[in-house]
Write a structure and sequence with these properties.
The protein is of the alpha/beta class. The protein contains 15 helices and 30 strands. A hairpin with a 2-residue loop joins strand 15 and strand 16. Helix 6 packs parallel to helix 7.
């Protein structure tokens, strides 16, 4: 059986150019119209290609190449040709480098040529790092339909909000139709229930037409626990290291050259053939490589090559649990040279303070001094002792500008890895009016910080629906193991009023679907106005573009637990040394439930440009109030009048 696709034409109906794919393995369409299949299978003496067309099955021997590779080339192969790879002594399987699984992870692979997609974004150059305002989304729950193409209908909302880049959670083919994406087993294949590779390319093209970059979350530290058959092909994994999620990928043992090529080709494919603007690398601290050139350094080399070849900005966003600046340092300083990385300490400081939670890694966060420290530097532990870890942790990020770090107050991990997947808004709702003010304060802390902001889908209008953990594994033993694991992890949470959502239940997945509702006059609308206004201010106020110059102090000065934190961005002192420079933005965060005086120097030569408790945002401040006092849990920003007030 073959699946037919539309011919690639542009909007004018002209034939598009077809650059040759650079992938070494998988089914690759060659310039002469033929298709070449190549598979790495050093574990077996023989490999065959099984071609499927309805009830017709054709078994084709593959020629052995050196280093464990097998290849077969055939002319006249139609798009969508179904096939499997048959290894001597094993069942026929999906191609490890399959780009398309139209019948799911256990079904046959299908020939797909991403370079033939009729992109219309030839003038697109990407988004500069310093201009990133990220929005993390999960395709399956972002819209009711849960597909790439359905997501396109919401891109205008994100652009109007002020977002410049969407960060898409992993889409590599996983078992079933419900998963966060971190259990993917075919990292080249875009999930079929989301719309497959063509759907992903359609989303990328549409995003670029609206001025939005697309960054894809990829997982190079492990593969999922079900329907992962690459062990039959070759030594993709190693027993030398362990990850919390399964066997570690083999980057430095015997056979690792081909595994490294497998990953680097994947990086190149997403950035070049799918025209993605960047990749978010999941948990790079669990990518182990003791070779002379770390695989992460080679990833950045591929990014650099593609950036030069395409003339477009290409970025790596790394997730690291190590507070290790080498992730960002240039190779000359022993680093990987990535553009930016998540800085989790900011989230932990904000969340622990606002909620009062102190379990797990929140144990050593929560003071007002921590909030001041998080605005001053991205790592709260930069070589100091960590009680939670029982050792010193991190190293100094000195010399790295603020736009090298991505901060958030919510993300998929910090929401979804809770017992019921409750969002910050839901947690704080129990605190009544103070909790609502804290939601606005959290947004101010993130969006006025000297770092790159990342929103988690729905956060911008205080979505109340949860984002629990969900999956759709087929094996009953694995499903039950996941259920029991969640129950053990959150045993202290379970009581007469709380139960852990069944991760395998369809209702758990459906509960995470966004409402996309912010009726005017509601708290939801007020929060959305706040996010929209501050994202616009980040583009308009000059000091917000300065990621190097900032000063932070706690008030009253010298207090171990400050009640107000002052953040000055831009010029941090007046030319004559008297007060604050009027070319700067001065931001004040009231971290108490009591009114606090606004320092006299705050409005010397400045006006209030933003107040989180303004009526427009659902706050308690009356229109026309002179804002001489900080209301409980209020954030006020002051700057030159000609910069323009937020929301004006």
């Amino acid at each position: 059986m073959t699946l037919m696709l539309d011919l690639p034409t542009n909007r004018a109906g002209a034939r598009q150019a077809r650059p040759a794919a650079r992938r070494h393995c998988g089914a690759v369409a060659l310039p002469d119209g033929s298709v070449r299949w190549r598979v790495w299978a050093p574990n077996v003496p023989d490999a065959k290609l099984l071609l499927l067309d309805g009830d017709h099955r054709e078994v084709v021997p593959m020629d052995r190449e050196g280093d464990g590779y097998f290849v077969h080339t055939r002319p006249g192969v139609p798009p969508g040709q179904l096939y499997k790879i048959c290894l001597d002594g094993f069942e026929c399987r999906a191609d490890p480098c399959s780009l398309w699984q139209p019948q799911g992870v256990a079904g046959p692979s299908a020939v797909y040529a991403p370079e033939r997609f009729p992109f219309t974004d030839d003038g697109w150059k990407g988004v500069r790092r310093e201009d990133l305002a990220l929005y993390e989304l999960h395709v399956g729950t972002f819209t009711p339909a849960g597909t790439f193409e359905a997501a396109i209908d919401r891109l205008d909302d994100l652009r109007d909000l002020g977002i410049t880049a969407i960060e898409v959670m992993p889409v590599g083919q996983f078992p079933g139709g419900r998963n966060w994406g971190y259990d993917g087993v075919l990292p080249y294949a875009a999930q079929d229930t989301y719309g497959g590779p063509r759907g992903l390319q359609t989303l990328v093209d549409a995003a670029h037409s609206k001025g939005l970059a697309v960054i894809l979350d990829v997982v190079y530290n492990h593969l999922g626990p079900e329907a992962s058959y690459v062990r039959e092909f070759g030594p993709y994994f190693t027993d030398a290291y362990k990850t919390p999620w399964g066997a570690a990928v083999n980057y430095d043992g015997p056979g690792s050259d081909a595994v490294r090529r497998f990953v680097l080709d994947n990086v190149r494919m997403w950035l070049e053939e799918f025209r993605l603007d960047g990749l978010r690398l999941d948990a790079v601290h669990a990518i182990y490589d003791l070779g002379a050139t770390h695989i992460l350094r080679e990833v950045q080399q591929v990014v650099d090559e593609v950036q030069v070849r395409t003339g477009r900005t290409k970025l790596i966003v790394a997730e690291s649990d190590l507070n290790d600046p080498r992730v960002l340092h240039e190779p000359e300083r022993g680093g990987h040279g990535f553009a930016t990385q998540w800085a989790d300490d900011f989230h932990h400081a904000v969340h622990a303070f606002l909620t009062g939670e102190r379990s797990g890694y929140y144990t050593e966060f929560g003071s007002t001094a921590d909030l001041a420290a998080a605005l001053r530097a991205p790592y709260l532990r930069a070589g100091q002792y960590s009680r939670h870890r029982g050792r010193r942790h991190g190293a100094s990020p000195e010399g790295l500008s603020g736009d090298r770090f991505v901060v958030c107050v919510q993300n998929h991990d910090q929401v979804g890895n809770r017992a019921v997947g409750d969002r910050l808004t839901t947690i704080l709702a129990a605190q009544g009016q103070a909790g609502a003010a804290k939601v606005r304060l959290a947004a101010g802390l993130m969006l006025l910080s000297p770092y790159l902001p990342m929103l988690f889908m729905g956060e911008e209008y205080a979505e109340s629906r949860p984002f629990p953990f969900f999956c759709s594994f087929a094996g009953p033993e694995l499903v039950e193991a996941v259920r029991q694991g969640r129950r053990r992890e959150f045993a202290d949470f379970i009581d007469a009023t709380h139960t852990i959502p069944d991760p395998a239940a369809a209702d758990t997945f459906r509960s995470a679907k966004l409402t996309w509702a912010w009726p005017e006059g509601t708290d939801h609308a007020g929060v959305r106005h706040l996010y929209q206004d501050l994202l616009a201010a980040r583009r308009r106020w000059p000091a917000m573009k300065n990621y190097d110059r900032r000063a932070v102090r706690g008030l009253p000065e010298g207090a171990a637990e400050p009640e107000v934190v002052e953040l000055v961005r831009g010029e941090t002192s007046a030319p004559a040394g008297d007060g604050l420079s009027t070319d700067s933005l001065a931001v004040y965060f009231n971290l108490t439930g009591r009114p606090q005086p606004l320092p006299a120097e705050a409005l010397r030569g400045r006006v209030v440009l933003f107040a989180s408790e303004a009526a427009r945002y659902g706050g308690a401040r009356a229109d026309g109030d002179d804002a001489a006092t900080l209301l409980p849990f209020e954030c006020i920003a002051a700057g030159p009048e000609h910069w323009g007030k937020a929301g004006a």
